[in-house]
Amino acid sequence: MPSYTAHPVMFRNRPFSFLISVLLIPAGIGILILLYWYLMCKATSLTVADGQIYLEEGLLSKSRSEIDCDSVRSVKVYQSFMNRIFGVGSIEIFTAGDQPEMVVKGLPDPNDIRDVIKGNKDGL
Q1: What is the mean predicted confidence (pLDDT) over 82-94?
Q2: Long-range contacts made by residues 36-41, C-beta under 8 angstroms, separation at least 24?
Q3: What is the CATH number of domain 4-121?
């Protein structure tokens, strides 16, 4: 079965914010912004494996959500023009109802994640 793990990315997700933070490093605040941003990106993880989708968030206290791939009704991928240029996007996973069960922003190659979820759902 296909498996996939991804964390939100920093530069490709928000290139202008990243550059501004780098420019603020001499002022001292830029390094704090980048460190905080890095920790928040590493604190979020989306994993698709063994017919399950796991979303884990948090550094000190953890929150973990799990969805069975068989219960996924649809997967929505959103990419703005800049997101498409840098190969990132947001993914929303719907099971039942009109509200998404999981929403993760800033993931690299969101269409690959969608394909892995659909592959797990179809039993490939």
Answers
A1: 94
A2: 37/10, 38/10, 40/8, 41/7, 41/8, 41/9, 41/10, 41/106
A3: 2.30.29
Residue 120 near residue 48, CB atoms below 8 Å:
yes
**What are the residue ranges spanned by the domains of the chain?**
4-121
Which tokens belong to 106? 């800033």
For residue 32, name the pLDDT band (cuts at 50, 70, 90). Answer: very high
Residue appearing with tokens 């791939």:
69
Query: What percent of the chain has pLDDT above 70?
Result: 95
Distance separating alpha carbons of residues 95 and 68, to the nearest angstrom:
9
Token pair of 99 as six digits = 């509200």
Q: How confident is the model at residue 13 (pLDDT cuts 50, 70, 90)?
A: confident
Q: What is the mean pLDDT of residues 42-71?
A: 92
Which residues make Cβ contacts (< 8 Å) with residue 97, sequence separation at least 6? none
